Amino acid sequence: MLNPVEIVPAFSYEGAPKLRAETASYVARALILISRSRDLVEQDRTDEVALLGTYRLQAADLLGEYQLFKHRMLFDPAFVCSRRSQAARGLKVECILMGECFSAFHARWQHSDPGVVWPMFKADVIAVTDQLLKHLQIEQVGIDRLLNGG
Predict the structure, then answer these.
(1) For labelling, which of 3, 25, 126, 144 has a CA lying 20 to 30 Å from the CA of 35?
(2) pLDDT band at 38 (very low <50, low <70, confident <90, very high)
(3) Distance (Å, rounded) from C-alpha 132 to C-alpha 58?
(4) Under a CB-based contact definition with an 8 Å cutoff, are residues 81 and 11 in contact?
């Protein structure tokens, strides 16, 4: 039987600055994509449906990569630290739920023409980006606490 300590990277406070910088970089790139998409949708730029599709695909790729990073480098290693295990588990569960929500959004529009049902698409973009922005903000606080040993 494998020992969990052997299959996940060591979790240490010394690595916190680097992990913080990497999470900040992922979040900053995600916020740019969210902002660009949200601006186009709020301005009713139905002529930019193709660009919105590109942003959605880029966001799906980036958020998927970020999710793997968080789980491998933050949440899973923290499971081995009894003090942080509960917090890490909660963050991981919320991350998975948000990932499923965004994946469902992506799947809904991947093979559809949002221009044909613009009001529905616009409402969906606004709802999902609101949820994603709130999630990223709350998650960042949780990650900071985790890295601070809380």
Answers:
(1) 144
(2) very high
(3) 15
(4) yes
